[in-house]
Amino acid sequence: MKPSLFSATSPISLLAFDLDGTVLSEQFVISPRVMAAIQAAKARGVLVTIATGRPPGVTLPYAEMIGVNAPILCLQGGLVYDTTARRALRHLTLPHTLACELIEMERAWPQWQVVAYLNGDMFMSSKRYDDAFYESLLGRDYSLHSDVCGALAGGDPDKVLFIIEPPDAGAILSALGRLVGARASVVQSHARFIEVNPLGATKGAGLAWLAQHLSIPRERVMAIGDQDNDASMIEWAGVGVAMGNGSPAAQAVADWIAPPIHEDGAAVAIERFILKPA
Q: What architecture (CATH level 2) is domain 96-197?
């Protein structure tokens, strides 16, 4: 675990949390206890935000349900989005040429489906799963193109995502690492998702940018997550919390490990570090 920056004299002013596996169950439900803890934190003046790999269009319904009161971190932190003004405050993209190289990988490994994101839209070569799978995890704004690279029309996409079978994760992480090198970052964001994101597009960097934008010092920021892609914000935050169901990478950099999601671990963490008696 990392040395904590938290102290009793530096109360939390900004709370960021991941969705899937952190506050959102496999049934895409936020438990009453977790929701109550988030609302109680807001009532104490804490700014609350979501940090997710999802684009804004898919994240906004959750943001509205929770009632976030700060800009949200989307696309692994590559996009900081003002939900009130409906505009990007920070937006990083992948080079078009690299994106096309990644899209071409689907020909060599057809079992790995490629999804390219550009300006809130998703581009795929085919639909391999039912509508519920795409809508619940990726959203509805996708279109099918035999030539996904061509469909980007020379634009620099937000990210490229690979939908995989969980046992293939190690193989595709290695293959993408060799192809991408130092040109972008590769991360597993879900048991079935491997993502290639722009350099600097991490939740940690996005959260650091947002905290500076809001003039909130690092030691007054709390982050909660469960996957490898959450590790950077867990490590950066003054209070970094990994879920009990979290990955080894997330837990290794945490200040504290909460109970798993089925035990309302996010609520337990908020109660411990924000709502605890004075």
A: 2-Layer Sandwich (3.30)
